[in-house]
Amino acid sequence: MDESKKKQGLFQKFLDFVEWLGNKLPHPVTLFALLAVLTLVLSSIFGILGISVTHPGEGNETVTVNNLLNAEGISYIFESMTDNFINFAPLGVVLLTMLGIGVAERSGLIGAALKAFVLSIPKNLITAGLVFAGIMSSVASDAGYVVLPPLGALLYLALGRHPLAGLAAAFAGVSAGFSANLLLSGTDVMLAELTSAAAAVIDPAYADSINVAMNWYFIIVSVFLLTFVGWFVSAKIVEPRLGSFKMSKEQEEELSGEDVDGIQTLQPVEKKGLIWALISVIIGLGLAALLVVLPNSPMRGSDDIGSYMDTIIQSPFMSSLVPIIAILFFIPGLVYGLVTKSIKNDKDVANQMTDTMASMGMFIVLAFAAGQFVAYFTESNLGLVIGVYGAQLLDSLSLTGVPLLIGFMLVTALINLFIGSASAKWALMAPIFVPILMQLGYSPELTTMAYRVADSSTNIITPLMTYFAIIIAFAQKYDKNIGIGTLISVMLPYSIFFFVFWAVMLIVWSLLGLPLGPDSPVHY
User: What are the residues facing 53 on neighbouring strands?
Assistant: First the structure.
């Protein structure tokens, strides 16, 4: 942080306290390891006590906390250790995507493209553009986590601004704005299916009418609201708090291949490389489109699924976006390198990919520790138990109207700190809250949107979010000593402002009775 900061307000002092407290925690690798041990201990205590709940989404099945320190649990710990590591959700996604991005970055394509971008866009729109791009990246599932935060940091670095501010703006858009988009995505499909199943308990006919686009109108407007809020938080809170960025000699050496001296005029060879790279991107996008858009395309969903849009959203193509994105980075990176002579042969490509993997060492170690923790937390059923008790607490308060919506969103935000998976949380919560709110006159579509608002807004402040570790790894490229406390203190303003403004928008929307999507009313 910049030590020459001026007198701070109460909110900035609060963020400083959060950073101080959080950074008292051990190194992130150690912290995840300690959390894994704590999970084992708590599972043993609660398992011995016989703590259990009734899972409303599994035919009222009784869910008991599993003791992971008994004979069976200890066997699980050792037998699952390798699988917990290699099956940690972000690991394969990150490493595969970074193979493609690594070639694009180390060939010089990304640096040249960023210079071209900065030269062509008004400086005061760069932050808004980053947040907007992050929000829209949810159509590509989780790939935005890997692509945009490091690009945002590099862009700010090239502008002479603090790279963590660029990383934070992109991360806020990708994660806190995950449920907003101008397009429909796999998330809409998954949530619609769970909502329909929960609504069928009260009204099977109504449940059959619930469609994939049930929140589409609202999430379209949300894109513009969150872009503005993200820009405001970045410009008025986060970047002033971070201050100026001063690189050490070690960092200058590590970042020597990147444009750290500011944006300069593009050289003729760079322009030529960018033109050919753009041509390769257009060709690549065209070929990718042929895999899904035409009838009988090899990666298109079955026509039995439903509409044309459904056959694209629920298709092998959408499930394969990570390798497709990696290829769409690799090919233009290779073309740019060949044109500019930064790549002369296959050895150069192999070396660039090897260097990229070497730079991911910290993330790989984090992935091992975090993978064990997440797996133990899931296997122990602690997350499910916490979720059910939280839902029962809200139900017992007997709230109605706007206070009920607010209470539901607050409980969702709290549960999100313990259960990272959006589908797992909604599978748990939908059977409880969809019927409750239907009986109070609120549509399943509104309940789902309220869930999405709270779930997205708090993604960026919980270490249980599966991509939290990779964001720390990206941040440590610019600050070796950055800890969980620093990252949470940087992201907390986004979380608070997104939650408040988004929730207010939803409440006003519901009071006006506007449809949330096609044939998707607010009231039941």
Answer: 63
What tens digit of pLDDT does each residue of 290-348 get?
Answer: 888 888 888 887 777 667 777 777 778 877 877 888 898 899 999 999 999 999 999 99
Select from 392, 499, 401, 489 the least CA-distant residue to 455.
499
Helix extents (H) in 341-483? 346-358, 361-380, 382-396, 401-416, 422-439, 444-457, 468-475
CA distance 179 to 456: 6
Dihedral sign computed on CA atoms, order 365, 370, 373, 379: negative
Structure tokens at 330: 């690799």
Residues with Cβ within 8 Å of residue 119, at least 6 apart in sequence: 263, 265, 266
The amino acid occupying position 259 is: D
For 190-205, the pLDDT digits (tens) are 788 788 878 887 788 8
Tokens of 287: 């070929």
Distance of CA 491 to the CA centre of its chain: 13
**Strands (E) located in 193-313:** none
Q: Is residue 364 within 8 Å of residue 134, measured between CB atoms?
A: no
Tell me the C-alpha distance between 293 and 310, whole Å.
11
pTM of the model: 0.72
* DSSP secondary structure code for residue 306 in this structure: S
Can you tell me the distance from the alpha carbon of 246 to that of 162, in angstroms, rounded to the nearest whole number? 8
- Tokens encoding 524: 């039941």
* Cβ neighbours of 183 (radius 10 Å): 14
